[in-house]
Amino acid sequence: MDDLIYLDNSATSFPKPQVVYDFMKEFYQTHGVSPGRSGFDRALEAENIVHGTRKLLTNLFNGTDPNRLSFSYNATDSLNRIIMGMLSKGDHVISTNLEHNSVLRPLNHLQRDGGVEVTYIPFDSRGYVDPGDIEKAFRKNTRLVIVNHSSNIIGTVQPIGEIGRRCRKAGIFFAVDASQSAGAVPIDVQAMCIDLLAFTGHKCLMGPTGIGGAYVGEDVPIRCTIFGGTGVRSLNPFHLDEFPYRMEAGTLNTVGVAGLNAGVNWVLEQGMDKIHAHEIGLWDRLRRGVQAIDGVTTYCADDTENQNPVLSLNIHGFEAGDVGTMLDVDYGIAVRTGLQCAPQVHVQLGTDKIHGTVRFSVGPFNTEKDIDRAIAAVGEIAAIKR
Amino acid sequence: MDTIVINGLELHIDGDGFLQDPQLWSDEVAAEFARMDGTGELTPKHWEIINYIRDFWKESDMAPTVRSLCKQSGLKLQELYGLFPKGPARGACRIAGLPKPDGCV
After folding, report:
1. Which of A149, A165, A188, B31 could make an SS bond with A181 (beta carbons 3.0 to 4.6 A apart)?
2. Domains in chain A, CATH or no CATH each
3. Does residue B102 form part of some domain?
4. Quick one: CA torsion of A369, A374, A377, A381, rounded to 10 degrees?
């Protein structure tokens, strides 16, 4: 429908800035060739966009070497490469109850089949993990700490700098899932002591689906877990050890990279802080509005500090899925319901027993009018059961 | 997975009560599912919706959208909930014998 109020930006940001659509179309029509490898001018120009995007993202995350910025399908893909490339039998890994299945499932498989031990750290009543709790879980064989920077269910932004410094001091590698934070809040891999960073392009970086990536710091001995064509040194019978090839194989999603390039540039032009201020202001309006409605329960939504614009709630007497259906059909409001692929958050909140929550997630193109309509809709639905 | 017997036929259902093999659905199964989930006796309006869901599913191998269900039945969503208290998915689609819809739950 034309007047859809889209509040599912944590799943994927929508719409994208017009410049993203325009640039992707123009790029694919003029440079939809295999980047670099064939050596003709168009191929080299396409490679320039790819490498330029590596540099753009490396600068965004304050990395040091653009070749250590690799592309993938999405954050899940990068997280798999990180987890499988860093852990071996006998290793211990520490993570949190805030994780998405993109971390939980690879870890669960390694725990079940690969002889890896896993410790999950709970979050506090406000939705934050205590770095001290992570440090207390360090063992002699702890190889990796992996933390979700910003929860896709409650939006709390974790103190990754403090966690990173404690890991660095202990000689433990530190990986961050920046799916919900890259492009939303500042990330400095050097200052925050982040060894491995996974991100996706289609959320706060405003790119299309199907493109994500990872940044791997220096002196991080990640194994290659994907093997194949690199376009260079083809006589080598084994996959190349050097970056970015160690993390990539096969032809890249160049039109995705181009869209990501345009998205990141749009974010930088608008100003990440200004976008965040706009979104968190709307989130606060939504939070205050729904918290004033009798029968509405919100989760870990206390204030705007260290918070991304994600709000989970339930309405007394309703299943989350039914609320989502009503919001969609009766009010034209798109939200996400259920467990949002992060089951341990719900287990800790107790919402796993009631089929999850209704999640509202604000994006840069939402307005106060959208929020007021959402509050009114929640109010009308809640009133049905009173 | 649980097993129930309707009209002497043994049927497997998942933890949420959805029929595992939609081919084994029958009017009797629908009536029993409706009785079990509190929907009650099925009226012609119920059957209109159930038949629409089944026809759509046979055609496209998926459940119709809730919006199309409302449009087809001429009911507002609240009225649909009035007919199927468990809602369009866990109520109407389950009674119509469809497998549990995919979703992150």
Report:
1. A149
2. 5-15+271-384 (3.90.1150.10), 18-269 (3.40.640.10)
3. no
4. -170
